[in-house]
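Predicting holo structure, zinc ion bound.
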Amino acid sequence: MKRRAAKFTGSTSLPARTADPKSAATVPPCPCGHPGGYACCCEPLHAGAAAATAEALMRSRYSAYVLGSEDYLLATWHPSTRPDASLLAAQHPAPTWLGLDVRAHRIIDDDHAIVEFVARYRLGGGPARRLHETSRFVRETQRWYYVDGD
Ligand SMILES: [Zn+2]
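Done. Tokens:
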């Protein structure tokens, strides 16, 4: 009976916790630092969605470093500059990422952009260090790729 479908009132369309402002305020920030949380920020990109901007791709790549997602780092690296697959394993000691600060997002044209950022990290028990990079990105077949950086 087709009328049975009318009994679904939409009560399952939203997770209950999103209706509670107290729990919404306690969502931990995305690894990239975005206060909206991982599920609303970098997770869809890590799951295969195309980044809308070079900055979004850059943030998702930082999160991938935090999470150790080497496959994602390689998949979003332009083939012309992509390193060997031993990318993260070659880092001794592995850095502990402390935070990301995107300083500038310059759009050169529809398919080229530059993102300047500072990433803070620590090696072992050492002091916090800063990686200040100006990265180049290119878009091919509607997907952004990291090319290289200074
Ligand atoms: Zn994020």
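Residues 2 and 26 are 41 Å apart (CA to CA).
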